[in-house]
Amino acid sequence: ISSGTPLDNIIIDAFALAIEVIRRQTRDNSQRGIEKGLQNGIILHQNQIECAMAMVGYDKGQSCLAEMKTGEGKTFAGVLAAYFKSLTGEKVHIVTSNDALAERDWQENLEIYKKLGITTGLVKSDTKQKDKKNIYKSDVVYTSTYEVGFDYLRDNSCKNEEDKVLGELGF
Questions:
Q1: Are 88 and 57 in contact (CB under 8 A)?
Q2: Which member of 10, 112, 135, 168 has the greatest number of CB atoms within 10 A?
Q3: Can you tell me the distance from the alpha carbon of 103 to that of 100, in angstroms, rounded to the nearest whole number?
Q4: Are 15 and 84 within 8 A, CB to CB?
Q5: Are 109 and 141 in contact (CB under 8 A)?
Q6: CB of 124 within 8 A of CB of 102?
Q7: pLDDT at 134
Q8: Residue among 107, 104, 92, 85 nearest 140 (CA)
Q9: What is the DSSP letter of 152?
Q10: CA-to-CA distance for 15 and 54, rounded, in angstroms?
């Protein structure tokens, strides 16, 4: 990527790597491997991969929203999209409806991101303001709509640049 390779040229390799890491991690972690009755690891289905491709804007030039119902695999689709997007150097925010979901998804995927060489962070309602700046420097940050929304508002009302916590946003 740093040599100018277009992202569309590496999406298949990047997704294949992430899918293999997810498969191995879920196979090695019996608690997650048992989920959905898959004792030999997880199989990412076509709709999960298609949703991840929509989220990163593959073949359209801009990222899109993707809707998935409960149980359709948003967590792993999000990991694929977050990994791919983080390869560009842009920060990725995975935003959930509450702290509990953000923490659950962050903890469940922490080892996957580590194996992919991606730094992650978690911002919750009890995260100290002084700690947020370092957490938001991570490649992928899990948080809630409430936290990122108010951090955005606080950043836009700061008089001093050094008081901002979110950093550069990719939109």
A1: no
A2: 112
A3: 5
A4: yes
A5: no
A6: yes
A7: 95
A8: 92
A9: H
A10: 13
Q: Which amino acid is present at 10? A: I
Give residue 82's identity as a one-letter amino acid code. A
Alpha helices in the chain (DSSP H): 11-28, 30-34, 46-56, 74-86, 99-116, 129-135, 145-157
Residue 105 to residues 5, 8, 19, Cα–Cα distance (Å) = 31, 27, 17
User: Counting every residue, how long is the chain?
Assistant: 171
Residue 60's pLDDT is what? Answer: 56
Contact by Cβ (8 Å): 151, 125? no
> Residue 74 and residue 58: Cα distance in Å, rounded?
18
Question: Which residue, chain included where needed, has tokens 């990122």?
Answer: 148
CB atoms within 10 A of CB 47: 14
- For residue 77, give Cα distances in angstroms to 51, 55, 150: 6, 9, 26
Query: Is a pLDDT exceeding 50 seen at residue 108?
Result: yes
The letter for the amino acid at 167 is: G
Beta strands 120-122 and 92-96 are unpaired
pLDDT digits (tens, 9 = 90+) for 6-29: 777 877 788 788 888 888 887 655
